[in-house]
Amino acid sequence: MSIITVSREFGSGGREVGKRLADILGYSYYDREIVSEIAKKTKLDENYVAHSLEKGNLGHLPINFGRTFSYPSVIMTDAVNLFSEQHKIIKELAQKGNCVIVGRAADVILKNYNPIKLFVYADKKSKLARCRERGASNENISDKALEKEIKKIDEQRAKYHELFSDIDWGKKEGYHLCVNTTDRDIKELAISLAEYVKFLMK
Amino acid sequence: MSIITVSREFGSGGREVGKRLADILGYSYYDREIVSEIAKKTKLDENYVAHSLEKGNLGHLPINFGRTFSYPSVIMTDAVNLFSEQHKIIKELAQKGNCVIVGRAADVILKNYNPIKLFVYADKKSKLARCRERGASNENISDKALEKEIKKIDEQRAKYHELFSDIDWGKKEGYHLCVNTTDRDIKELAISLAEYVKFLMK
């Protein structure tokens, strides 16, 4: 059984890389299913779960456990439940067979499966352009403000990852391959990348 | 014309990656030729040049220009000449056509050619094993001492690189692809990697 985890900077196209890799390899791709499953199990609103976890953007959820008592206990309970359910569901999905999972610290959660760990990144300009292209953010936002938003999301991803691992998010040492998507067409990139990933899975 | 630069941690197998990529792609591979050429032009002993530059190990050459005056002027002159010749020769070779150049800050020196920039790395254990395998060092050296030697060489490489560039050596942002060779057979790896490199050169 082979598992591929794709960690990525916001706006780098890592999600598309993961989806396309899964398609080329005939692997399952888990994304929104994870959110739906968590919502079902925790009886929390799916949008709330998505907002809190999908993009690694934990928003107001308490990351700093030293400040726990300043948060209402319901949010604290939500956070623990969300983390716990996400871990459980990712492990359940991994057991079903070959798959690609993007983000969600899956590289750490599934470490016993020895996943192939990819990291996808790009330069600032390229990430800004990709964010605008897919309309992920307000059209009226300035480049500077969007850049700040991207940085904040990545910082949250790093923080989330580091809750469960000693290995820093985004440091090349933690991955089998780090892929720079700057100025690249993801569709074409994925085709060539799949060849290298096949080698890594041998 | 396509140029591929391979930066690498000592013991990661990056040199072999570069050589094999060149063979697969039918590209020139420049390595010892650069040293011979520098020796010829500077009238310095080839082994002295090799020792000083080949592995990015500048030995006693003055890196810290703030301390220039504490070095004998002949060494200072050698250093400047070596650096200068190396830059010139790398640029001359690049003009000859498709090639792979390993190390020597070629990624920075040839930046106007928009080279494909790879970085090859591996974990400590793997680098130690590779160093022992190829007998690059004293057999009686302890793991700890060898590890220290590897670290020192990489630090010199980083320092050399940073003389000419604002981009930190080994930071993934400076490369198109970062390849972890831990527990991989370089021969097989190069075959799959060549596919991705072809994509990058499109």
Give a short overview.
Chain A is of the alpha/beta class.
In terms of topology, how is this protein built?
The structure is a homodimer.
Chain A: E1 3-8, H1 14-25, E2 28-30, H2 32-42, H3 46-54, H4 73-95, E3 99-102, H5 106-109, E4 116-121, H6 124-133, H7 143-164, E5 177-180, H8 186-201
Parallel strand pairs in A: 1-3, 1-4, 2-3, 4-5
Helix pairs in contact in A: 1-8, 2-3, 2-4
Q: Are there runs of chain A of 5+ residues with pLDDT below 50, and where?
A: 55-71
Largest interface chains and counts: A-B, 24 and 24 residues
Q: How large a portion of the residues of chain A is in β-strands, by DSSP E?
A: 5-15%
Structural class of chain A: alpha/beta
Helix content of chain A: 40-55%
- What's the Cα radius of gyration of chain A? 17 Å
Strand order of the largest sheet of chain A: 2-3-1-4-5
| Shape, per Cα inertia axes of chain A | globular
Distance between the termini of chain A: 11 Å
Please, what is the average pLDDT of chain A?
86
Oligomer state of the chains in this structure: homodimer
Count of DSSP H/I helices of chain A? 8
Largest sheet features of chain A: 5 strands, parallel
Beta strands of chain A, count: 5
Main attributes?
homodimer; 202 residues; alpha/beta; five-stranded parallel β-sheet; 8 helices; 5 strands; globular
